[in-house]
Automatic annotation (TrEMBL):
Domain of life: Bacteria
Residues that span the membrane, as ranges: none
Organism: Sungkyunkwania multivorans
Enzyme Commission designation: 2.4.-.-
An MF annotation (GO) of this entry: glycosyltransferase activity
UniProt keyword annotations, A-Z: Glycosyltransferase, Transferase
Enzyme class, UniProt record, top EC level: transferase
Protein name per the record: Glycosyltransferase
Length: 416
């Protein structure tokens, strides 16, 4: 094994960013890198073994500490408390997917794995990363893998949320953005990795990372788990006719406006094809048009079950308004299933019209309906084996790991 110690830090091992980070960690270990993983719900040491870790567990302050905090708050609020107070004052007016402040009670630079690491690779770090303390004290080379736009935005994680809420919280958002940009200057040796060229371009335009190395490295997918399967057998298990058109939609939360289920539901009544089965995976209810067959599968945690759902579908519909390089697109490709999407984000870089999927010409329900109709007419021309081959070529773990290793080597040399 390499003597280089790389630590991956993310808020959770679950969700899109957490899954992608864990896949990278495993890919690096398979290439001989001593990689560790730190999240609020999972700690893996440099030896590859899971550890008991109380670092993120809440510890109630003693009486004297509680009194001291109460007195301090009566005299002066912290930056975090002032910001949170402002957010709370307008929260009823805000519409957003998620927001994060660059403050945290957790002092990550003191964690033993951080102190033992040669390189720290950050991922999605909402709640756990305190910018001032971490970047002020951690002198190790920093790699930041951009799973969304928050590292170079203010409090929001995508641009649309920033624009939508500017009237109510724009001043705080700009102040946080300025604070974060200034703090990032403390990083002497750093790099950003963007899974999509779109995200890399957006990060470049922000000016946050002018002194960083910048590179585009796509995420990987587990090609042994997500694979082609017998569609007829799977459909029989789910009670779906083998000749029906089956489309799949996936989102962690079905009401996440960024993921575009509302556009898909508005498009479905416009379709020429009436014998459509829609499979939905994610939390929350689905408002179903009367003429539509919907199989709401809820939240699915088992990756093998997810792989079955991809494999039995004719197409995976990904109507995101903004997105980086969604794991779900990679997983669909790995299962040999084409993707229907809008021409935006990381989707426009990997959906090859007529081969790996199809694009809607504009971001609206009518264009999406036309694209699904067009796909239905041409679906026999999509070759599952070719789509699978594209995933093998572009999203394999070894290729991803080697690209990261090259970057780590560059940073190690700069750090000497």
């Amino acid at each position: 094994m390499s003597t280089l110690k790389v630590l991956h830090i993310t808020t959770s091992s679950k969700g899109g960013a957490g899954i992608a980070a864990l896949r990278l960690h495993e890919a690096l270990r398979s290439q001989g890198i001593s990689s560790a993983f730190l999240a609020t719900d999972l700690t893996i040491g440099f030896d590859g073994k899971q550890q008991e870790d109380t670092f993120f567990k809440y510890q109630r302050p003693n009486l004297l500490k509680r009194i001291a905090n109460k007195v301090r708050r009566a005299i002066r609020l912290t930056h975090a408390e002032i910001a949170q107070k402002e957010i709370d004052s307008v929260k009823a007016k805000l519409q957003y997917e998620t927001l994060s402040l660059p403050y945290s009670k957790h002092q990550l630079h003191l964690h033993p794995l951080v102190q033992a690491a040669d390189i720290v690779n950050l991922h999605w770090t909402g709640i756990i990363l305190d910018y001032e303390h971490f970047f002020g004290h951690c002198q190790k080379p920093i790699v930041w893998t951009l799973h969304d736009m928050n590292p170079f935005q203010g409090i929001f994680h995508y641009k649309d949320d920033e624009i939508r809420n500017a009237e109510y919280i724009g001043q705080l958002d700009e102040a946080v953005k300025t604070f974060k940009r200034q703090i990032m200057k403390n990083v002497e040796v750093g790099a950003i990795v963007a899974p999509s060229k779109w995200m890399l371009s957006e990060a470049n335009k922000s000016g946050f990372f002018d002194h960083f190395e910048k590179i585009h490295i796509p995420n990987s997918v587990d090609l042994t788990l997500f694979k082609m399967q017998d569609k007829r057998v799977l459909r029989e298990q789910y009670g779906i006719d083998e000749n029906d058109l089956v489309i799949l939609f996936i989102s962690g939360s079905l009401d996440n406006a960024r993921k575009g289920l509302d556009l898909l539901m508005a498009a479905l009544p416009m379709l020429e094809e009436t014998g459509i089965n829609l499979l939905t995976i994610g939390k929350g209810p689905v408002n179903v048009p009367e003429s539509l067959k919907v199989i709401p599968l809820g939240a699915i945690k088992e990756a093998s079950k997810m792989a079955e759902c991809y494999a039995l579908a004719d197409a995976f519909v990904l109507p995101s308004r903004e997105d980086n390089l969604p794991n779900v697109m990679l997983e669909s490709f790995a299962c040999g299933v084409p993707v229907i999407s809008f021409f935006t984000g990381g989707m426009k870089e990997h959906i090859v019209e007529g081969k790996t999927g199809s694009f809607a010409k504009s971001m609206d329900a009518a264009a999406l309906a036309n694209t699904i109709d067009r796909f239905n007419e041409q679906r026999a021309s999509f070759i599952a084996a070719d789509i699978r081959a594209y995933a093998e070529q572009n999203f394999n773990a070894a290729r991803q790991a080697m690209a990261y290793i090259e970057l780590y080597d560059i940073l190690e040399k700069k750090n000497v």
